[in-house]
């Protein structure tokens, strides 16, 4: 079964990362901080799923 929460987090991260690369945003900008937050959420979710 598809994990919709995981897919939504990954999609948001990909979108933000593409935007950051396109615009050349530096570390510390709100978009880059959100990517870091998403990375933490993804890691937590994956460890929770793993058991």
TrEMBL record:
Source species, domain of life: Bacteria
Protein name per Swiss-Prot or TrEMBL: Uncharacterized protein
Native organism: Novosphingobium chloroacetimidivorans
